[in-house]
């Protein structure tokens, strides 16, 4: 198959290489013209995936129209808040034979849309069966080194989910399938906010008990909000829910956990973000989650605490004790 990957960050580059070795004809689109040239020449993504060789057969380009022409699949690996501006440049293109696959994990700040919703909103002529998602516990640093990983391919159309599954599966990258596309997207986006909370626990020197509480009560609130937004409950105990929450809260590779850790140590958000070239989706997504939970009147105390720490400069230690001393309630609520 001809497959284009839009976004040459760590994840886009990793998946482009995986797809190439799976026998596909792969194009990798990079946002900056100068960096596209550097990548084409050096065949190493030193900024986002150092030490991994990009095969010379992968076409690297900055020309978006060209990258999208006559593709069977287009993989979107762009930070969520920039996806609409990229898609708006190709909205006139004929995509009647193309499937779009989002591998990005966030919610658009201004519209509160998931990535599959942004794709359908921006590219009016494509049907839901042309849209899918691939998500789960999968740090680029490990997949690019062929470390065994399991993820899930989702589309409201079962056949599309299975096509995506078949395109990506390898002996070290196991792909399951589901039709709960929204559940997979909400799990992937919301776990980033909880992972910032887990990082705060690390940075502020709370303990393992605290982190386990954040993760367990975190998946409870992800499920609560996700279900109110149309997701299926069982999806949140799967790879894209609990699975991705575990890896993101625990891994040294996680950028979201890192942001939280620095906040917990007393650093300012703007200084942390200035020092990072990679994206921590949970920061902007926490604004969207704050709004979604208010709009739908769903309690999301941990996400709400993360939002207040990031954007209202609330003290992480004080707010943790506020969480601990809320009204008594049954665990099932
Ligand atoms: N890294 C990982 O392990 C995983 C990441 N993801 C998800 O994949 C998505 C992409 O993340 P990742 O690959 O890690 O990204 P990185 O943090 O590695 O890189 C950021 C990317 O964003 C690009 N970018 C910056 N500004 C813009 C813009 N205005 N328009 C378009 N692109 C822009 C950068 O391009 P440039 O260098 O030219 O500025 C770069 O390619 C995220 O949603 C993330 O949550 C999902 C699973 C695993
Ligand atoms: O989604 C991821 C792993 O599954 C990547 O998480 P971070 O963006 O926090 O690094």
TrEMBL record:
Q: Which organism is it from?
A: Melioribacter roseus (strain DSM 23840 / JCM 17771 / VKM B-2668 / P3M-2)
Q: What does this protein do?
A: Catalyzes the reduction of the glycolytic intermediate dihydroxyacetone phosphate (DHAP) to sn-glycerol 3-phosphate (G3P), the key precursor for phospholipid synthesis.
Family according to the record? Belongs to the NAD-dependent glycerol-3-phosphate dehydrogenase family.
> InterPro entries under this entry?
6-PGluconate_DH-like_C_sf, 6PGD_dom2, G3P_DH_NAD-dep, G3P_DH_NAD-dep_C, G3P_DH_NAD-dep_N, NAD(P)-bd_dom_sf
**One short Pfam family name for this protein?**
NAD_Gly3P_dh_N
Subcellular compartments: Cytoplasm
Question: Where on this chain does sn-glycerol 3-phosphate bind?
Answer: 105, 136, 138, 191, 244, 254-256
Q: Which reaction does it catalyse?
A: sn-glycerol 3-phosphate + NADP(+) = dihydroxyacetone phosphate + NADPH + H(+); sn-glycerol 3-phosphate + NAD(+) = dihydroxyacetone phosphate + NADH + H(+)
The entry's protein name is Glycerol-3-phosphate dehydrogenase [NAD(P)+]
Q: Could you tell me the EC number(s) of this protein?
A: 1.1.1.94
- Positions of the Glycerol-3-phosphate dehydrogenase NAD-dependent C-terminal domain: 180-319
What metabolic or biological pathway is this protein involved in?
Answer: Membrane lipid metabolism; glycerophospholipid metabolism
- Give the UniProt entry's GO cellular component terms: cytosol
Primary location group: cytoplasm
Catalytic residues? 191 (proton acceptor)
Binding positions (NAD(+)): 7-12, 140, 255
- Binding residue positions for NADPH: 11, 32, 48, 105, 140, 255, 279, 281
Main EC class the enzyme belongs to:
oxidoreductase
Which segments constitute the Glycerol-3-phosphate dehydrogenase NAD-dependent N-terminal domain?
3-158
Residues annotated as binding substrate: 105, 255-256
Which keywords does this Swiss-Prot/TrEMBL entry list?
Cytoplasm, Lipid biosynthesis, Lipid metabolism, NAD, NADP, Nucleotide-binding, Oxidoreductase, Phospholipid biosynthesis, Phospholipid metabolism
Can you provide one Gene Ontology molecular function annotated for this UniProt record?
Answer: NAD binding
Tell me the GO BP annotations in alphabetical order.
Answer: carbohydrate metabolic process; glycerol-3-phosphate biosynthetic process; glycerol-3-phosphate catabolic process; glycerophospholipid metabolic process; phospholipid biosynthetic process
Which NCBIfam families does this entry report, sorted A to Z? PRK00094.1-2, PRK00094.1-3, PRK00094.1-4
